[in-house]
C-alpha cells in the first residue's frame, strides 16, 4: 500500500514537463491508478485498483459548488489556466462557480475528467 509520504517524495522531484512523466511512472509503480482533486476544499484522494485510497488534508476553506454546470464558461477558465493566466486557487474558485465538483486524473488512461456534483463528466482531456 502506498502512503502520502511516498507520493510527496515522487512529486517533489517534478521540476519540468519531462519530470511529470517520471512522476506518473512512480505513481504507477506504487500501485496508484489515479487521483481526484476535490474542488470544494482542495483535498486530493489517491486511489488504487483495489479500492485502497489515501487523502491529503484540505488546502483551503470550503468553496460552494454551483448546482448547475456552465461548460462554456468553464472551458474559457480552463484555457486561461492552462495558458498560465491564473493560479491554482483562482482556478479552483472558477471551477466551483462553473459547477465542477472534482477532477479525476486517470494515470492508466492518461486522462483528466472534470466532473459535476451529479457525477457527470463535463470535459475529458487527454494528458500528453
Automatic annotation (TrEMBL):
<dbReference type="InterPro" id="IPR036696">
    <property type="entry name" value="YdfO-like_sf"/>
</dbReference>
<dbReference type="Pfam" id="PF07166">
    <property type="entry name" value="DUF1398"/>
</dbReference>
<protein>
    <submittedName>
        <fullName>DUF1398 family protein</fullName>
    </submittedName>
</protein>
<dbReference type="InterPro" id="IPR009833">
    <property type="entry name" value="DUF1398"/>
</dbReference>
